[in-house]
């Protein structure tokens, strides 16, 4: 069909840089430093391009990512590409303060994931404790930071798709209830009624 998709473009880029030293040199001169945010969404071919273009030639490459999010293969993520990049890196830095959530939520999540020695199954992905920039929730009245809901059925073994639907339905119900409370003036976020865009 004389058409190229995204994967074709990646493959052609890799081949071009691997076989054409002049093109490779031009890109290395043009981009002295490279920073890739959300690196956990990188696949092995993309990483091979960055590795060949920058790492192998000593050009500084900065990767920002979260291995716990590299499980989302629908976004093109590949956990093994991430782990390889982490192994190749000379230096590792961790953001030690969460600026989105409050301390009760962060501490609760930490307590949950600290129950297991390898909470994410693979030995190279640990759960790093972080601090929170805020002490309290922005919701008024305040709510429990962590709520655990059992969505399985003890009477029968349920398929993953059924559990996914139950989890989605539960989340939708919780959101609808919160927005109803806000519309009735019973739930505020930062002093004003909670809006859907703040969830």
Overview of the molecule:
This protein is α/β, with parallel strands linked by helices and 199 residues long. It has helices at 6-19, 21-30, 44-53, 79-88, 103-113, 160-183, and strands at residues 34-36, 61-63, 97-102, 131-134, 139-140, 188-189, 192-193. A 3-stranded antiparallel β-sheet has the order 5-6-7, with no helix packed on it. Helix 1 packs parallel to helix 3. The longest helix is centred in the C-terminal third of the chain and has 24 residues, at 160-183. 9% of the residues are buried. The mean pLDDT is 89.
Describe this protein with a few key phrases.
alpha/beta, 3-stranded antiparallel sheet, 40% helix
Task: Note the topology.
Blueprint: H1 6-19, H2 21-30, E1 34-36, H3 44-53, E2 61-63, H4 79-88, E3 97-102, H5 103-113, E4 131-134, E5 139-140, H6 160-183, E6 188-189, E7 192-193
Parallel strand pairs: 1-2, 3-4
Antiparallel strand pairs: 5-6, 6-7
Helix pairs in contact: 1-3
Give the C-alpha Rg: 22 Å
Task: Tell me the β content.
Answer: 5-15%
What class do helices, strands and sheet pairing give? alpha/beta
How many strand units?
7
Number of helices: 6
What is the H/E string?
HHEHEHEHEEHEE
Biggest beta-sheet profile: 3 strands, antiparallel
Terminus-to-terminus distance: 44 Å
Give the helix proportion (percent range): 25-40%
What is the overall shape?
Answer: elongated
Low-confidence stretches: none
Report strand order across the widest sheet. Answer: 5-6-7
Mean pLDDT: 89
Write a brief caption for the model.
The protein is an alpha/beta fold and 199 residues long. It has helices at 6-19, 21-30, 44-53, 79-88, 103-113, 160-183, and strands at residues 34-36, 61-63, 97-102, 131-134, 139-140, 188-189, 192-193.
């Amino acid at each position: 069909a004389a058409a190229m998709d995204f994967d074709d473009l990646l493959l052609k880029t890799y081949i071009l840089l691997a076989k054409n030293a002049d093109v490779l040199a031009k890109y290395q001169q043009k981009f002295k430093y490279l920073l890739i945010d959300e690196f956990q969404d990188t696949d092995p071919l993309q990483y091979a391009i960055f590795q060949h273009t920058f790492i192998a030639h000593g050009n500084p490459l900065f990767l920002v990512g979260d291995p716990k999010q590299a499980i989302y293969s629908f976004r093109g993520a590949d956990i093994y590409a991430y782990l390889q990049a982490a192994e190749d890196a000379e230096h590792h830095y961790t953001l030690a303060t969460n600026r989105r959530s409050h301390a009760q939520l962060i501490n609760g999540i930490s307590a949950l994931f600290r129950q297991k020695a390898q909470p994410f199954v693979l030995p190279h992905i640990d759960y790093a404790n972080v601090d929170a920039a805020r002490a309290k929730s922005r919701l008024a009245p305040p709510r429990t930071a962590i709520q655990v809901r059992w969505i399985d059925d003890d009477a029968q073994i349920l398929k993953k798709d059924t559990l996914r639907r139950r989890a989605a339905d539960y989340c939708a119900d919780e959101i609808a209830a919160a927005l109803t409370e806000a519309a009735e003036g019973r739930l505020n976020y930062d002093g004003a009624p909670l809006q859907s865009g703040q969830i």
